[in-house]
Write a structure and sequence with these properties.
Layout lengths: L15 H13 L4 E8 L6 E2 H13 L7 H10 L5 H9 L4 H4 E7 L5 E11 H4 L3 H16 L8 H14 L3 E4 L8 H21 L4 E5 L2 H7 L9 H11 L5 H13 L6 E3 L5 H8 L44 H6 L3 H4 L2 E4 L4 H14 L6 E5 L5 H13 L2 E7 L1 H4 L2 E2 L6 E2 L4 E8 L2 E2 L14 H11 L22
Parallel strand pairs: 5-6, 5-10, 7-8, 8-9, 9-10
Antiparallel strand pairs: 1-4, 1-13, 2-4, 3-4, 11-12, 13-14
Length: 481
Amino acid sequence: MDPEVDGVFSILDTDLYKLTMQSAVLKYFPRVKVAYAFTNRTPHMRLTQEAFEWLKFQIDSLKNIYATPEEIEYLKLRCPYFSPAYLTYLSNLRLDPASQVSVSFSRLDDSDTGDLSISIHGLWVETILYEIPLLALTSEAYFKFCDRDWNHDGQHEKTYAKGQALLQAGCMFSEFGSRRRRDYRTHNLVIQGLCAAANKGEQKGWKGKMTGTSNVHFAMKYDIPAIGTVAHEWSMGIAALTDNYEGANEMALRCWLGCYGEGVLGIALTDTFGTADFFRAFSKPIPAITSASQGAIATLPSSTPTQAPGSLAETKSPLSAPLKSTDEEINTSKSYAQVFTGIRQDSGDPIKYVKVARDFYDSVGIVEKKVIVFSDSLNVDRCIEYKQVAEQHNFMPSFGVGTFLTNDFVNTSNQGKSPPLNIVIKLSHADSRPAIKISDNIGKNTGDSRKVSEVKGRLGYEEHDWKEGDETGRWGREGEK
């Protein structure tokens, strides 16, 4: 496909964790209806009417994309954790943006610009795939029509230099930039630059490694690993469905293991309701019911009526198991912290996080090296700094580098910073109940403010405000040099 093409033309042009979560939703929550809400954390950066009309057309065009036989075969071979039932479901799925996506434009007085509103609604198992393409398209619309003071010159070379710096410093990293990329062409140039740097690193014997990309389309196109496990959405949805925020982290972990089993997709995201609450759940023994079902029965979604008694593929998910473990389970079962390969840091102070994580693992007697994946607003210097701290605390650090790679531009007129949009789409409701995210930084709180306040009180959450966590300027401000 011509890299100059507009928009999104492959259903795999998304992050892997959207597919892994979709597979788990198909298994356990296939009839749950949800809603998503769009937020522009850089509200001064607005679309024009022309940009909005282009965006509307691109969103409508998502009805034309589907998983091709070649893409399904790729997933079957390279992502063996996907069940035959899920791959069959994905091959038959067609998006319906006309009924599932609402988009509007509120024009400001005496201006061609206005505020964008996007909402998504429908079955969770279907609408889960809209987030990444809608964010990528919104960013592309802005930089195609509203901010044109930039070009693609030097993007390959710039990314190649960043990749070399990370590899020479011994960093293990992957590309995480789908959602806020400037456009498809930029993303393509970035992957090419990183692959060239990785080849150079192998020739030079550098200790670092490019481990892959979160974008499944580019992983397939360039024959590199697709990287990802789970997003906040998984825990947010389960908490909203049950209104059991005290047990939500454990239920999310339990269902994940019930879908994929031990040793598969084993990086846990800790900050959905604050890392302190997550670690309380992470330390618990895993109930006997929480193991991935085996054989043909494991391919069935939870809505299928013909299942063996006791299988995790039956309608009752691991949510139905008691949260309080029996004495036998406490004595014989591994904990979630033992089973999961590691954890992901996505908000708050990374240095403090490493120390808290080390204290946690020490407190539960885990001495083996675990992985920490850093994924919050990274650049080369931060990766190197966090690597040193993580290794000093006996962790294996890895880095998911996103916007710094796929939307790092300067204005052609003055060589000042051309900052990216900071936009997000988050789950807002599940079965009409509000869905929220608290995180480890107040700037990343998401959802109904009353529910956020209520849950903070229920969990005994301690407020955090990281001085470098200003969401309006995470990757620089207009004109900075």
